[in-house]
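user: can you give me the structure for this one chain? tokens are fine.
assistant: on it. calling the predictor now.
[tool input]
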Amino acid sequence: MPSPRAKIGVLVSAGPDRASFHHAVLFAGAALGRGHDVYLYCVDDGVAGVREPALQSLRARGLKLYACAYGAHRRHLPVDDSAAYAGLTVVSDLAASTDRFVSFN
């Protein structure tokens, strides 16, 4: 991991039924535990996991959680305050402005 208080970007396209989703949650939790600022964006099937208790508990610990609004609408999922729903421009901004950017597919 990068130096103390690094900005870490995480992209999750795997749904909550996949091991990749849970690896992303564990990775984000470990980064938060090390004092990093963590920004997690759920896209594609990942939007179905926004309300997962493990992910929401990370939010309570300081995770900045984003989700693809288009992906939520296509999957008939509610767009509410469980995440900051936004477009893919946010992914571009996160990739450009974080010290490390990882993807879980």
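assistant: here you go. Residues 7-104 form a domain with the Hypothetical Protein Ychn; Chain: A, fold (CATH 3.40.1260.10). Strands lie at 7-12, 37-42, 64-68, 84-86, 100-104.
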